[in-house]
Amino acid sequence: MSTLQYRFCPQCAQPLEQRDHGGAPRMVCTAEPCGFVQWGNPVPVVAALVEYQGKILLARNAGWPAEFYALITGFLERNESPEEGVARELKEETNLDAVETSLIGVYPFQRKNEVIMAYHVKAEGEVSLSEELVAYKLIEPAKLRPWRMGTGLAMAHWMQARGLEVQWLEF
């Protein structure tokens, strides 16, 4: 799990120590009046399975292997709904406009301590990738190959809901 682990309290700078709190081991401030507890709550992430020109748009992050493409994802920001967040991320990453969004589902991604809210997003416009992305490709929905975690589960559920056969990508 890649959750940030504080060694010192972000409120009073006293050392943190692991204690049983709320039925689980947690990092807790040693200063009595402070009361800080690092809960380790998952980070909310939005994901877009983007339908564009009748195909599904997958993108490759600059830090990924050349053969790896995935859904558009990003962190939900303060004071925005998941629908607003997924539309914002789509615009920031691809310059496309979301014209219709529908929830596919909510998925845990324990490896990164995230909870993913995945949407099917119909999009319009002209693709222009952000500096985070280096390539994209458009794939016929029946040719998608989901992976067995995180956003791959959302892709598989979306395909199954449309009667498409799921052929899992094996790593």
UniProtKB/TrEMBL annotation:
- In Swiss-Prot or TrEMBL terms, this protein is called NUDIX domain-containing protein
> Catalysed reaction(s)?
a 5'-end NAD(+)-phospho-ribonucleoside in mRNA + H2O = a 5'-end phospho-adenosine-phospho-ribonucleoside in mRNA + beta-nicotinamide D-ribonucleotide + 2 H(+)
According to the UniProt entry, the coiled-coil residues are none
**PROSITE patterns per record:** NUDIX, NUDIX_BOX
Q: Does the record carry ATP-binding as a key word?
A: no
Membrane-crossing ranges are: none
Nudix hydrolase domain segment(s): 40-161
Q: Which UniProt keywords apply?
A: Hydrolase, Magnesium, Metal-binding
Does the record carry Hydrolase as a key word? yes
Q: Could you say which cofactors this protein requires?
A: Zn(2+); Mg(2+)
Family under the similarity heading: Belongs to the Nudix hydrolase family. NudC subfamily.
